[in-house]
Structure formats: C-alpha cells, structure tokens
Amino acid sequence: MTDQFAPPPAPGCRSAPVLKQRGQREVFCGLTGIIWLHRKIQDAFFLVVGSRTCAHLLQSAAGVMIFAEPRFGTAILEESDLAGLNDAHAELDRTVEQLLARRPDIRQLFLVGSCPSEVIKLDLSRAAERLTQQFAPSVRVLEYSGSGIETTFTQGEDACLAAMVPVLPESAARELLVVGALPDVVEDQMLSLLEDLGVGPVRVLPARSVEDEVGIGPNTVFALTQPFLSETHAALTRRGARPIAAPFPFGEEGTTAWLAAIAVEFGVSDARFAEVTEAPRRRARQAIAQASEPLRGKSIFFFPDSQLEVPLARFLTRECGMSAIEVGMPYIHDAIHGPDLDLLPQGPQISEGQDVDLQLDRCRAARPDLTVCGLGLANPLEAEGLSTKWAIELVFTPVHFYEQAGDLAALFARPLRRKSILEVAAE
Amino acid sequence: MKLTVWTYEGPPHVGAMRVATGMKGLHYVLHAPQGDTYADLLFTMIERRDHRPPVTYTTFQARDLGSDTASLFKQACQEAYDRFKPEAIIVGASCTAELIQDDPGGLAETMGLPVPVIPLELPSYQRKENFGADETFFQIVRHLAKPMEKTKRVSCNILGATALGFRHRDDIQEITNLLYELGIEVNVTAPMGATPSDIRRMGAAHFNVLLYPETGEAAARWCERNLNQPFTKVIPIGVSATRDFIAEVRTLSGATGQIDDRGLRQTWWTRSVDSTYLTGKRVFLFGDGTHVMTAARFARDEMGFEVAGLGCYNREMARPVRALAREYGLEALITDDYLEVERHIEALQPEMILGTQMERHIGKRLGIPCAVISAPVHVQDFPARYSPQMGFEGANVLFDTWVHPLVMGLEEHLLHMFREDFEFNDAAGPSHHGGHTPAASAHREPAFADEGPAPHAPRSISGEKETAAGGEVIWLDRAERELKKIPFFVRGKARRNTEKFAAEQGLREINLDTLYEAKAHFAR
Questions:
Q1: Active-site annotation holds for B274
Q2: Is the per-residue pLDDT at A190 higher than 90?
Q3: When you count CB atoms within 10 A of the terminal residue's CB, does the N or C end of chain A come out lower?
C-alpha cells in the first residue's frame, strides 16, 4: 500500500546514538495545552490550581486574550492557602462552587495541577472525587497535572487525555479509537477517509462533549494522531485496548502509512485502499511539490519543543528535500516514535532533553537554513541572521492528513520565502 | 484562593525580569521550573527584543525535588557567570522555588563569585509584577550606589523605565530632550539602558526625575535619604502636567533654559471646532495608578471629557487614586478582578474607555470605543514610530490616540445625512472599525460565550438584544422602527436607556412616546 515511496533507509535513526544533555530547558509547561484543549472539548472548563505565574503563562503564551470569558481560569494560591492543606481544600471547594454557579453550561471540570500545587502536595485527585460526588450527575470533575516539574508543553494534553481514560465506560465492541486533539475540520477529513475505507465504527478521544464519549475494552484498537500521547497510550493499554503502531499522519507518506496500518488491522483490500487514497494522495503530492520549492536542499535544526520534531523531520527530509542537522525532542518514547525514526535517514544528531545554551552554540556553529524553536528563542536567532519557525504554530494550525500536507510544507517555507523577498535586512 | 480569568499583573519575578532585561551587564539567576521560561517570550515577542532576556532558569524537575535542587542552583549560577561574565548578578526564586526554600541568595553568597551578588526576596503569593520591578531596582541601587561628589553642571537621573514598559522607550527620549533644553544633563537613566557601573555613579546627580512610581519609587526614596537627591513628583503626561513638571524641575535645579513648545499641536487641535463633539463625552479610566491619575486630568481639563469613573488595578496606588476620585466626585474602583471591571463598565455605560488592553476587550464586547493608556502591554503598545505619552509630543500622541476610536463622532452629521443610504447601513458597519462593533450578542449566553464571531466580520447591531430584552419589556413596532433610525453607534445606549426607563416606570410595553420620554429623561 505504501509503494511509490522511497524504501525506508537502512539504517534509520531508531538505533542512532542519542545526545542527552541536562541543563536549562527552554520550553513551556503542560498547562499550555489548555489553550487548544478548551477549544476542542466544548463543554469543559479547565481550572488551574496554581500561582499568578500560571495565570500569566496562560494569558501570555499564546496571546489568547481574544475571548471575553474563556473556559479556563486559575485558582490562584495565596499565602493563607499555603498554611494548611485542609483549608486549601475548603478554599478549592468554594472556588469550584463559585465557578460552576457562574457557568451552569459546564459539564466537565478539569482541575489542573501546577508546580506549586504539586510541591505543597495538594491532592487534586481527592478533590476531584469529592467534587464529582457533590456535583454529579450534572458535572464530572477530573484532574491532571500540567505542572512544569512534571510535564513539557504538549505533555499537558497527554496528561489530560490519560485522565479521561479510566472513567470511560467498559465496552466489548470492536472499534477504532483515534486519539489526539485535532482541529474539527481535520478530524472530519480523517473520519471521512476512514469511513470510505470501510473502517468503523470510529471514535475519537477527546470527544467534543461528554455526551459523545464512548466505551473501551479489549476489542478496542487505537491509533494516535499526536506523537506526545505516551501516558494516554499506557492508560489505554491498561484498559485492554491495543495500539496500532504507525508513523504519524504528517505529509503524504505519513498519512498513507498511518491509514495503511489501520487498513491492515481492519482487513481493507489493497484495491479499496488505493481507490480511496489515490485522489487525496495526488493532491497532497502536488501541494507539497509546490509549497516545498523553497525548502529543497535546505538544512533544518530542531530545538526540542512540541514533541512533533521527529515526525516533522521525517516529513521534511523525505518529502520536502531538506536535510536535518539536529532533531531535538523533549523526550523519546520508542514505541511511539520508533516508526518515524525508522524512516528518518541517519545523519542528523538526535537529541533528547536540553541544555539550551549548549544547543544554541551548536545551532550557531551549524548555521542551519531554518531553525524550529520556541517563541523565546525565535527573534534572538532571527537577529543573528538565522531563519526560524515557531514550534507553537504547529500545534495551533491544522497540519495533519493529506489536505493539510501542502500547508504543513508552506509553514516551513514561509520564513525562507519572506527572507528572500524583503529588501532591507534588519540590522 | 482567588478565581482569576485574566490578570493585570504577572508575578513579582517577571517584574525583576523587566529590570534585568532593561539593564545591560546584569544577569538574573532564577530558581524556577522549566515552565517559567515562558516569560522570555514576553520580551522577545511582545516587545520584539532581538536578544534573549539575561535570565538563567535552573529549570528543576520533579525528580530533582527529592535530591538536591540547591546544588542545581549553584551549578546554574556558576555556568551563568562563566558564560555571560556579568558585572553583577541578581538571584531569586519564582513561586515554586519559593516553596522549596533553597535560599538562592544565601547559596549564591557562599560561591565566592567575583562580582556583586544581589539577593531578591519577592513574595510570590502576596505581591505582583510592579512590586517585583520596584523592589528589584531598589535592591540593585541599594547594593551598588554610593554617595559621591556631584557633577559640576547640574544633572539628574531618570528613574523607573524598564523593559516591557508602556511607552517607556519613547518617554525617556522625550524627557531627556526636555531636560536638555532646560540645560540639565542626564547622569544615568535606570533601570532601562543602565549597567551596574552606571548604577554605581548615580550618586553624582543633583536630583532624580521619577517617571514611573510603580517601578521606581522605592529607589527614588532611598536615593533621597542616602544620596541627598530630591525627586520629582509630577508625572509629565498632558500639557498642564508637563508645564508643572518643568516648573518643578526648575525649582529643584535652578535651570532657566527655555522650552520650545512649537511642536505642541494638542492645545490648538482641541480648540478647533471639529473637536466640539468631544465636549462632555463620558469616559471611564482604568489602568495603573499613575497613568490613570494623569489621564484623568488630561481627559477633563485638556480634552473636555467628563470623567464618569476611574480606578486602578495596583493596590499600591489605591490611596492617591481614591483621593483623586473624590476630587472628581467619584468613588474609585480599586480591583485586579477583570470581571469586576467589566461589570462596572457595563453598569456605567461610558461613551469611551481609557484603559488597558484588557478594557479594550471589554469595550469590544460592549461596543464601547476604547483607547489604551496603561500597561499591561500588548504587541500593539510597541509601535515602530516614535510615540511617547510624556511631554509635549506625548500630548499630541494622546490626542490622536484618544480621538481615533471616536473618529466616527467627527462624522456624526454625515451619518445623519446618509443613514438611509443603501451603501451606508448598519450591517456594513463602520468601514475602518470592524473591531469596535460589539459581538453579535452582548448578552452572556449560557453556552460557549467565547465563540463570538471573528473580530473583522461585519455584524448587524440592530438585531442585538432583540431576544435579550424578551420576556420583560416589549418594543412596539413603531417604537422599534424609530429606534432603528437612531445612528447605530448610539442605538445600543438609547435602547438600554429606554428599557431602563420603562422598567422604572413599571411599563410592559415601549411605544413611541416611551422612547422620547426616556430621551428627555436622560437628556443632559
């Protein structure tokens, strides 16, 4: 099914040595995921139990002050909350009551742990149990940690989804569960592809509302659409569900491989597969060919950030003609990232974790044509004459599956195109 | 615990970062988990700085907590010194590190670094960003500045400007020029632009110009006591305040230089007849104490507005803001609760808001024009062009900035003339102000209240509240049609006033008479 592609390189990067450094990390914490999760799960409210810093992060990280009243907020710990944990629990109950009275439309409440709440050992699972009893059946209260001492950026979504797994009802039905928050338009494209393949019924996690949730059990097979869902992967496996290992659905190759793995699982014929995927594959190839023009022959350097680095490096090297110098990941999980690493030709330095100053030294020495990094590093690197792509845009923009493959290439091409059209260089 | 949707101020260590990032040759070693590194983007993205803030975060993780976060701190501190070779180091903890009580100050002291190490105590669970900046600058000055011989020519320091400050960059330039014209040399500008060596020679100035009390007052007071430097109390925002400031500086310095104010247009622009429509516009002011107090004076005495309400989010300024409000016959709103500010504005129904970026959102939702006068900042508050708030050029900038959202009013007579024109109807919206029309429903819906339409989509305003008022007061057909003849930018207010009037009169229906009786009732 995946003919037309270059054969997997031998050897790929799966067995390549990984550079592990420990020093200052320059990444968001898991709370950041709330920014897209609250848009996706439309009946949920995310209440961070944390400090003013947490509230400030949420407000600043994505410049999201576009909503009059968002479905997230922070219960800011004050001096008095630090004195005694019993009082802190009572205060939390009071805050939740206040919140739910204000927002009667909320059906799911996530209590989100933060660095301070973890350090003072405020037990949010106890609070969630207590509050669930109090507000059932109208509101379900769950908890997870988005703290920066436990989670990195996209791991917040992982923690959130993993927290939902234990409360999903038991089901014996043979179903495909697709896991990962995708923009609605992309999710609909994916569902329609799977439907055309005759795979089904297909469920998604997270569901758009609590009513849409479904059961799981030993007959559930699941496929991840995001490479940062390792805890969710483990939680689903514990419930008896079985993972389908595949490269992630970025680009034509990734999407085809991802669909093919599912097609094999569900016994879809080669003819049917070819029939369904032929047109969108052709479109994706065309779009990529156009959009990737400025990328061909260019080098790229990834700072660890969104956890999408390995699949994206695979897409950019194999489908857009780039060469990777370094591919940094916050962490590498072999079962999840293995299929993409297999396809990534050896050559780039694979690194896990970060010492940002040392990594900046390497980046400056290599002078890549394009650097993928966080917002804190982008402008300073631009000022040094390097072109950058902010990693955060990759988690806010529809980039998965065939119809977005060209857009994905274009996201990387734009900084290079821009540089080539601007006449006067910045000083 | 305090439920917070949006915050006006960040945590105090962000204030310390504003000082460190504004300065040169200073490094901040911050004991903090990895998530706190988000603060870098405030400077690199909002202010578009081309350098990383000079901050090293220890970025400890959960697994470090059981072992040794203290040696992690010392290692980070040593590496920061070796790499950046700063003239001085400030050390402190963010909210999480404060809880683990590693005492960064004490640890750094034992390391024997060859440069001054200044410990910061910034209580994250009590105080906020402005305090953090003020306290950090104060500690730096206290540790480094010493009494010394004054300069031969009369000179001053300019205090309070930081990175990520609201128009600090341009204010400093404007005031430096003004002082130069007066014949006064600027000895040191700090924190912004100063090195630790500059701080050491602050004592050579004869007096201090304090431009931002929020972030510089503690240092100014310390210098007054220890360096024999009086400081200015007038903030030169607005024409009268700038003249008062010049007078104050002359008194402190004996300077006699003449000021060239030929570039000042604001005083004539407000007298030009096209500004008549500004008369008595009811404005609500909210922001940091200093900007609100100066803006109130400018609004009433130099623009001819009516100050309908005012307040500030920083409690440190509550006392003077309350006192000023009383002078205006008002009660000040002192709160950092965004939703409370929103309720206040909704009840007050001003014709314009002079606020922060947060009030701009409230204004958008309620359909009230808003100009930004104060931090918290946004990328829009760092324009490419020169646009100070202070001095005479600042007054010009204020005039333009405040009039811009109201510019539809300038064309009020044209609106009357063209309101039936097919190209000029409600649905088209004001051509250049898509962002200022209210959301399709100004009423808070139970579900997905934040799903409002895209800010640039044209929206029908006449349809707004059709359902909101349902069940209470009924608009009869003729009254409804008459209401639609009222220009759309005042129609919301007319509708609310009429409904309020009807409710007060115990009426169930609104007819044509009710509409005009309400108009007479609310006429000012």
A1: yes
A2: yes
A3: C
Report d(CA B97, CA B91) in Å as an integer.
12
What is the nearest CA distance from A145 to chain B, expressed in angstroms?
A: 12
The residue type of A111 is L
First to last CA, chain B: 44
Nearest chain B Cα to A63, which residue?
A: B378
Determine whether the interchain pair A69/B65 forms a contact, defined as Cβ–Cβ distance below 8 Å. no
Question: What's the rounded mean pLDDT across residues A33-48?
Answer: 93
Within A103-154, residue ranges assigned H as helices are 115-119, 124-135
Average pLDDT over residues B462-487: 68
Question: How confident is the model over B399-450, as pLDDT tens digits?
Answer: 999 998 886 544 555 555 555 555 555 555 444 444 444 444 433 333 333 3
Q: Nearest Cβ partner of B124 from A51, A91, A94?
A: A51
Nearest to A53 among B45, B95, B447 (CB): B95
ipTM, 2 dp = 0.93
**% of chain B at pLDDT higher than 90:** 69
Q: Please check whether residue B203 touches A, CB under 8 A.
A: no
Q: Which of residues 6-35 of B touch A (CB under 8 A)?
A: 6-7, 9-11, 13-14, 33-35
CA angle, A169 then A173 then A178, to 5°: 75
The whole-angstrom distance between B124's CA and the closest CA on chain A is 8
Structural element, H or E, at residue A178: strand A175-179
Strands A72-76 and A108-113: unpaired
Other CB atoms within 10 Å distance of the CB of residue B357: 21
Give CA–CA dist B27/B197, Å, rounded: 14
- Taking CB atoms and an 8 Å cutoff, what residues of chain B touch A43? 447
pLDDT for residue B257 is more than 80: yes
How many residues are there in chain B?
524
* Exposed e or buried b per residue across A239-252, where buried means at least 16 C-beta atoms within 10 angstroms of its C-beta: bebebbebbbbbbb
H or E element that contains A112: strand A108-113
Do residue B125 and residue A382 have CB atoms under 8 angstroms apart?
Answer: no
Strand (E) or helix (H) holding A179: strand A175-179
Cα–Cα dist B34/B63, whole Å: 13
Residue A191, CA distances (Å) to A182, A187, A284, A395, B348 in order: 11, 6, 18, 20, 50
Q: Give the nearest chain A residue to B3 (CA atoms).
A: A75
